[in-house]
Specification:
single chain; 356 residues; alpha+beta; conserved putative lor/sdh protein from methanococcus maripaludis s2 fold; Elongation Factor Tu (Ef-tu), domain 3; OB fold (Dihydrolipoamide Acetyltransferase, E2P); 4 domains; 6-stranded antiparallel β-sheet; 6-stranded antiparallel beta barrel; 4 helices; 25% helix; elongated
Length: 356
């Protein structure tokens, strides 16, 4: 019996010893596990590429109106119709205006003849200088009235000031209209303005002396047309960003082949070289290398040195829109940063770099 107890006691001691040894080995194995990470080299870059979403607008957009009142007797255009510069849009009945025109023309011709006669008489001293000056004044009044009537007669015809399309007809034929009342809305579809909003943080991109824009319409994917900046506000409106507009100036942009109309959406591709604007080099890293802590907006990256990681504060200027970020402070060209699993690492942890 005693021998059996002794054997059982020895077995238990051996089991306990094995368990302790196994646990120590497992713990040691856990400590010896090295995390494998993906990395990338920090590169220097002064060329920034960014994409924005925009909307097409017409450069020339006007509501046409007569300068005189009257009844419309011709309105040959319809909505959507294309017109050329000088084409007739509408005509007002000229009869009422022609009566005044005829009277003013007769008065002008009479005053002109009277002035010529008094000028000859003045040379012969057959009329006083005062009477001659009164005749000059009458002539100037008659001339002004005649010019006004001539303009009014010409204004009975409303023509297109540029090539475009009738977007909307605001009145009907034979309707009586007042001076200044809108007749049609004319839009120049050959000149297009692209408007978009740029975040405040990208303001420095517009300061660059070397920049280029291209536009890609949603309805014509894969076709890009060069554009140039028209204007932008140097302030953010309603904290929504910086309003920017560009004009397409590409000779390949044929409106007959690409029927792009105001209201269409598109992508604006900006390529900006900031080497002449920045007083420091801009570093480029994969966007996945940049992370934040649980609270706060401070940005960090993991620097790999001697197979150990070190957390480094950085200042990120902007993402590029191509899964990359531009860093202005905190890292140097040639350093190695972790690009995957950044939230699982700890300061000073040993890592193994994943070979490509």
């Amino acid at each position: 019996m005693r021998r059996m107890i002794k054997l059982m006691s020895s077995s238990l001691m051996m089991a306990a010893t094995c368990f302790i040894l196994f646990s120590c080995s497992e713990e040691k194995a856990k400590r010896d596990v090295t995390r494998t990470v993906k990395v990338a080299k920090v590169e220097s870059s002064t060329e920034i590429k960014k994409d924005f979403s925009g909307v097409v607008e017409a450069v020339e957009y006007v509501k046409l109106a007569f300068r005189v009142s009257g009844q419309i007797v011709e309105l040959p255009v319809i909505e959507g119709q294309k017109v050329k510069k000088g084409d007739l849009i509408a005509k007002i009945d000229p009869r009422e205006i022609s009566i005044q025109y005829s009277a003013d023309k007769a008065s002008f011709e009479t005053a002109s003849a009277q002035l010529d006669r008094n000028k000859r008489l003045l040379d012969k001293q057959a009329v006083s200088k005062q009477d001659y000056e009164v005749c000059v004044a009458n002539f100037e009044r008659a001339k002004s009235a005649y010019e006004l009537s001539t303009n009014n007669m010409n204004d009975t015809y409303l023509t297109a000031p540029f090539n475009g399309s009738i977007e909307r007809r605001l009145v009907e034929n034979f309707q009586r209209v007042n001076a200044g009342e809108g007749i049609v809305q004319l839009v120049n579809t050959n000149k297009l303005r692209i408007k978009f909003v740029m975040p405040d943080s990208y303001m420095y991109l517009l300061k660059s002396t070397k920049q280029s824009f291209s536009v890609e319409f949603d309805t014509f994917k894969g076709r890009k047309f060069s554009a140039q900046i028209e204007e932008y506000l140097d302030i953010s409106t309603n904290r929504a960003g910086i309003p920017v507009s560009v004009i397409i100036d590409d000779e390949k942009f044929d409106r007959n082949a690409y029927e792009v109309k105001p209201g269409f959406t598109c992508n604006i591709h900006l390529n900006s070289d900031i080497s002449n604007y920045m007083s420091y080099n801009m570093m480029m890293v994969p966007l996945s290398a940049v992370f934040e802590e649980a609270e706060g907006s401070q940005k960090y990256v993991w620097i790999v040195s001697n197979n150990k990681v070190q957390k480094r504060k950085v200042k990120m200027n902007s993402p590029t829109g191509k899964a990359e970020a531009y860093i202005s402070e905190g890292i140097k060209v040639g350093e190695t940063v972790v690009t995957a699993g950044v939230y699982q690492l700890k300061e000073g942890e040993t890592v193994k770099i994943l070979s490509k």
